[in-house]
């Protein structure tokens, strides 16, 4: 049995998508073993999104590509075209976004659940996410739109990427007594 962490982000909660998202995983057959609504603080978020230089560069570079494809000068609009600086700016937008409303956090259980949930959530940028995935079905946000709004990409959910990350995230968000064992 494997457990994974999933959070409906503030955009998903505000749009009333919690039930829709949850029901997809229930219908799949995954077992909900923990669930709660939390308004997260910066401290938890900094631990959850403890990103390194490589992430800043990756995210900044990806954002610049979208920016240039749209014939815009990032220097003019964002004050920089340095991918790492931009990545750090995006990281702060992400923390601000995650603090902008409550989040519904849950732990789902089932064999191979990390990979299964990731597949159903879809790629980070909804504009790239195929139909049938949560991020592809319910939004079309992109790094260009988000950069225009000086905000993180709104993509409805977070899920763990690999089992070791799932273990860390479950331990960060849930206490032992908040997780349940029962027969389906
Ligand atoms: P994922 O959430 O798919 O695991 P990451 O961990 O790389 O993706 O990024 C964390 C979150 O940061 C994303 O879900 C998204 O909300 C936001 N984000 C990532 N890249 C960008 C970007 N280029 N511009 C704005 N926000 C971004």
Describe the structure.
- Belongs to the NDK family.
- Residues 1-181 form the Nucleoside diphosphate kinase-like domain.
- One of its GO terms (molecular function) is nucleoside diphosphate kinase activity.
- This protein folds into 2 domains: 1-39 and 102-142 and 150-184, Nucleoside diphosphate kinase-like domain (Alpha-Beta Plaits, 2-Layer Sandwich), CATH 3.30.70.141; 41-100, no CATH class.
- It is 49% helix and 14% strand.
- It contains 10 helices and 4 strands; from the N terminus they run E-H-H-E-H-H-H-H-E-H-H-H-E-H.
- It has helices spanning 10-14, 18-28, 42-48, 53-69, 74-78, 83-98, 113-121, 134-137, 143-148, 163-173, and strands at 2-8, 31-38, 103-110, 157-159.
- Strands 2-3-1-4 form a 4-stranded antiparallel β-sheet.
- Helix 4 (53-69) crosses helix 6 (83-98).
- The protein is globular.
- The mean pLDDT is 95.
- The chain binds adenosine-5'-diphosphate.
- Adenosine-5'-diphosphate is lined by residues 59, 62-63, 90, 94, 124, 143, 146, 152-153, 155, 158, 161.
What value does the average pLDDT take?
95
The fourth-level CATH homologous superfamily of the largest domain is Nucleoside diphosphate kinase-like domain
N-to-C CA distance: 13 Å
Number of strands: 4
CATH architecture of the largest domain: 2-Layer Sandwich
The molecules bound to the chains, other than polymers, are: adenosine-5'-diphosphate
Widest sheet: strand ordering:
2-3-1-4
Largest sheet: 4 strands, antiparallel
Percent range for β-strand residues? 5-15%
User: Percent of residues in helical segments?
Assistant: 40-55%
Q: Which class of secondary structure composition applies to the elements?
A: alpha+beta
Determine and state the CATH class of the largest domain: Alpha Beta
Q: Encode the helix/strand succession as letters.
A: EHHEHHHHEHHHEH
Shape designation: globular
Low-confidence regions? none
The figure for the number of domains is 2
CATH topology category name of the largest domain: Alpha-Beta Plaits
Whole-angstrom Rg: 17 Å
